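To illustrate the input format used throughout this study, we show a single complete record. The first block contains the structure-token representation of the backbone; no residue identities are included at this stage. The design step must infer an amino acid for every position from geometry alone.
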């Protein structure tokens, strides 16, 4: 059984990244089709601004999923479960829904789906990191990192709550102008911020946060 486990650990990263890349490519193709088919995006009115904001959010979401998986797979070793090969399909469906919901009239389901992607992505990363912590090959990283506590989940819980709150307020007020714009600006800002957080993690994994190296780069 140890040989089977070793073979799974070796082949798992390639299989997972291949699966993720296929799903992300399909999501990008769907997004491009949405842009080409939506003539209203070129009217340059409030609806077009909201639409482009939703497209940007969907694109950033696609990047987030790719960066999350590529960082975890190339940076850590962990025991793969069967669900690790199933969850990418769930994330793919969520991304397809996010793109399909982009329309001339703002649909608050877009905010709810985005919130569900935050939940799924956070659960995937936490589950994977928890198993990675148990593998001695990752001791160099986790030896400097404390285990996650409930406080570490508050940012994601706050983000999801705000997205849901935005959706409820928009549904109640039937506002199709400035409220959707504020909600989409918030969503894109969070996605951009998370990209920088993954960049920070990648630099930490690669040992690029060493003061001496930073000084060398600045020089």
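Output of the design step:
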């Amino acid at each position: 059984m140890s040989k089977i486990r070793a073979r799974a650990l070796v082949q798992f990263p390639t299989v997972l990244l291949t699966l993720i890349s296929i799903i992300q490519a399909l999501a990008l193709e769907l997004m491009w089709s949405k842009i080409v088919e939506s003539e209203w995006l070129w009217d340059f009115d409030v609806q077009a601004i909201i639409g482009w904001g939703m497209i940007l959010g969907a694109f950033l979401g696609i990047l987030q999923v790719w960066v999350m998986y590529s960082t975890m797979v190339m940076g850590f070793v962990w025991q793969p479960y069967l669900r690790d090969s199933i969850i990418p399909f769930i994330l793919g469906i969520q991304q397809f829904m996010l793109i399909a919901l982009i329309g001339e009239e703002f649909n608050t389901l877009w905010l709810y789906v985005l919130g569900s992607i935050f939940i799924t992505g956070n659960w995937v990363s936490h589950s994977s990191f928890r198993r990675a912590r148990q593998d001695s090959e990752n001791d160099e990283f986790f030896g400097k990192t404390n285990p996650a506590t409930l406080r570490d989940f508050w940012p994601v819980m706050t983000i999801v709550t705000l997205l849901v709150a935005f959706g409820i307020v928009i549904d109640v007020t039937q506002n199709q102008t400035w409220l959707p714009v504020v909600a989409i600006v918030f969503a894109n800002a969070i996605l951009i911020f998370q990209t920088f957080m993954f960049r920070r993690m990648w630099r930490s994994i690669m040992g690029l946060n060493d003061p001496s190296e930073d000084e060398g780069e600045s020089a």
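Structural context for interpreting the output: Confidence is low (pLDDT under 50) at residues 210-219. The chain is about 75% helix and 0% strand.
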